[in-house]
Amino acid sequence: MKRCTWVTTKEPLYIEYHDQEWGVPVYDDRLLFEMLCLEGAQAGLSWWTILQKRENYREAFDNFEAEKIVHYTDEQLQLLKENKGIVRNKLKIQSVVTNAKAFLKIQQEYGSFSSYIWSFVNNKPIILDWETVSEVPISTEISNNMSKRLKKDGFKFVGGTICYSYMQAVGMVNDHTLECFCNPSNVNTKM
Q1: Is the confidence at residue 100, as pLDDT, over 60?
Q2: What are phi and psi of 172, to 5 degrees?
Q3: How far apart are the first and last CA of the chain?
Q4: How confident is the model over 154-159, as a mean pLDDT?
Q5: Which of 102-109's residues contact partners 24+ apart within 8 Å by CB, and which partners?
Q6: Average pLDDT, the chain
Q7: Catalytic residue among 47, 72, 116, 118, which?
Q8: Which of 14, 22, 34, 39 is catalytic?
Q9: Alpha-helical runs (H) found in the chain
Q10: Is pLDDT at 190 greater than 50 in this prediction?
Q11: Of 113, 190, 84, 100, nearest in space to 154 by CA
Q12: Residue 48 appears among annotated catalytic residues
């Protein structure tokens, strides 16, 4: 079966991520928050690096429970900076706490983070039909607008490119190439 050509490894974890998660719509607030934080952690790195550390991130950041994260002490932040299981960049670590605060504020204002974030795509996934991975943009007008709004609302590590990667990861946009069995036009040919 054919996959998007960015799946360059035979690692089961990477294949499972591509086949089961990437491009699949997510509406769960906790998971949406987790993915936003992980996409921010990816800045300047590869997704494969972060994906391999995802379980460590979940453990280190209390399964991305924002209610717990907002109460982290300086001592807890120092321990995170020493945690070899995650990317030990102090700005990225601090951004998770900052983002947790902004996330909780959004939940209170909009009823859910999902309602807020999905409003950028009119609550409906954008399905695109790219022939090749080289056609897929790194950012779009929507991701740039999302970035501006997230920054205005207090989020960090949410540039236009990060936001587009996030949109792909949580299924707000489906960029599986036409030959990939995960492209919606191939849904009946899945094995």
Answers
A1: yes
A2: -70, -25
A3: 8
A4: 98
A5: 102/150, 102/153, 102/154, 102/155, 103/29, 103/33, 103/36, 103/66, 103/155, 104/66, 104/67, 104/70, 105/153, 105/154, 106/153, 107/29
A6: 95
A7: 47
A8: 39
A9: 12-16, 29-42, 47-60, 66-69, 74-81, 90-110, 113-118, 141-152, 160-169
A10: no
A11: 100
A12: no
Q: For position 131, what pLDDT does the model report?
A: 94
Tokens of 161: 């490119």
Helix axes 90-110, 74-81, angle to 10 degrees: 130
pLDDT at 10 (0 to 100): 87
What are 20-68's pLDDT values in tens digits? 999 999 999 999 999 999 999 999 999 999 999 999 999 999 999 999 9
pLDDT above 70: percentage of residues in the chain = 98
Is 11 among the catalytic positions?
Answer: no
State both tokens at 61: 């950041």
Residue from 17, 21, 48, 179 carrying the catalytic annotation: 17
Q: Is 169 exposed, middle or buried (0-12, 13-18, 19+ CB in 10 A)?
A: buried
- The residues near 21 (Cβ < 8 Å, ≥ 6 apart) are 169
User: C-alpha distances in angstroms, 114 versus 21, 82, 120, 139, 141?
Assistant: 17, 32, 10, 21, 20
The yes-or-no verdict on residue 170 having pLDDT over 80 is yes
**Is the four-CA dihedral 105, 66, 97, 71 of positive or negative sign?**
positive
Whether 116 sits among the annotated catalytic residues: the reply is no
